[in-house]
Prior knowledge:
The protein has helices at 2-22, 50-74. The protein contains 2 helices and no strands. Helix 1 crosses helix 2. It is an all-alpha fold.
Amino acid sequence: MSGWFAAIAVYFVIWWTVLFIALPFGLKTQDEDNNVTLGTEPSAPRGPHMRRALIITTILAFIIYGGFYYLFHVRGFTFDDLPMYLPQSN
C-alpha cells in the first residue's frame, strides 16, 4: 500500500511543479490582443486557457515521472549515487 501512496505522492509533486511551469506558455494578454475589457487590467489573460494547461501538465508530468520510475526502479539508481560536496576541514 505504501508503494502506491508514494508513487501517487511523487507524481502529484511533479504534476504541481510542472503546472506552474506550463501556465504562462501560450498565454495571450488582452493588451496583446488589442481587446481590453473595460474595468480589467490590460495584462489580464485574453480568455480561459486552463484546460490546455492541465492537459499539457498531465502529459509532461507523466513523461517526467516515467523517467523518474526508470532511473529509480529499473536502473536501481539511488540518492547515494549522487556526488556529494563535502567541505575540507583544516
